[in-house]
Design brief:
Layout: H1 16-23, H2 30-42, H3 56-65, E1 72-78, E2 84-89, E3 95-102, E4 107-110, E5 114-116, E6 131-134, H4 137-151, E7 158-162, H5 172-183, E8 195-199, H6 203-210, E9 217-221, H7 227-233, H8 242-253, E10 261-266, H9 274-287, E11 290-295, H10 309-321, E12 326-329
Parallel strand pairs: 4-7, 7-8, 8-9, 9-10, 10-11, 11-12
Antiparallel strand pairs: 1-2, 2-3, 3-4, 5-6
Helix pairs in contact: 1-2, 4-5, 6-8, 8-9, 9-10
Bound molecules: S-adenosyl-L-homocysteine.
The site of S-adenosyl-L-homocysteine has 17 residues, from strand 8 and strand 10.
Length: 350
Amino acid sequence: MERASELRPNLYGLSRDELADALGPLAPERYRSRQLFRALYRRDAWRVETWTDLSRELREQIVNRFRCERPVIVSRHSSSDGATKHLLALPRGGRVEAVAIPAEDRMTFCISSQMGCAFGCTFCMTARLGFVRHLDAGEIVGQVAALAAETGARHGRYNIVFMGMGEPLHNADNVLRAVRLLTDPEGFAVGPRRITVSTVGLPAGIERLGAERLRPRLAVSLVSADEQTRARLMPVARAVSLEELARSVRRFGRGQRDRPTFEVVLLAGENDRPSHARALATLARRARAKVNLIEFNPTPDLPYRPAPEPRVQMFLRVLRAAGVIGTVRRSRGGDIDAACGQLAFTRQQA
Ligand code: SAH
């Protein structure tokens, strides 16, 4: 008889306490759920057959009542610069993309928090998909597990950026649960400063992130410090003023070693004028943020071009003169549509 698999709850993605509750009378000893927690996230042993420290009988009971499934990689596309885009099939159905970006010292995994996105930034390809659904915690951390297994990255020794598909703070419950599994020393054991949550800038979500015991880094996709320019490129700006956003970023950074980051994707003729650079420097000082200038990744479907290099240099000069730390992020994975804002599937994949 085929099991109605969708009716059995998925163990993958549960916290320690939730695992203990779910197993309940099946495994009344406290150490069992802890053992399972470590197996799932520390050893990536999510296939119940591999839990050989449990009796066969207990394994069978678990399989009868629960599923244990994490996302699995269904295809890979490697860029000439070393970045590899992975398409992952999700246990609850549907697919998302996640990118592994190797650097000399450490690997970075760029992961998705939603299928599609509700925010409609005009320069982002994921926005074109519209919002499909939130990912649950297991679907989020499972991307990390799948990419770590795939790349052979050492346990916990990688960076994670929530810069794939979706708006993490629109899905704050699941993203916070995922961050706790990722930072738990008995889970993925990733240092909180190795995790960056990147957001369109939702103050309520930023506040929740700031209240975490182990707080990840914060990056806000500012795009422009000019209210009208920002509102033209990012519809969310009509609901959140720059003033409010700057205050919330400043509050997040208070008492922290790392400054939050303003990410600014520079678009030719849109947000790359000297007046934009000056406004950015002023706002970054006020918010106590550093600035990461992002090279725009063009695609034929979007009506924008990257700002010319002299503009990028001009921004860096204006920021430096104002005492603001500014860096430039060069595009990776552009030739395989794996660069920032390009995750949207091709027609065959979706
Ligand atoms: N929703 C989150 C995370 C996804 S976007 C957020 O907005 O931060 C991650 C980063 O990619 C953002 O800083 C965004 O400004 C940038 N980005 C989006 N489209 C891009 C594109 N086509 N080229 C370069 N960067 C882009």
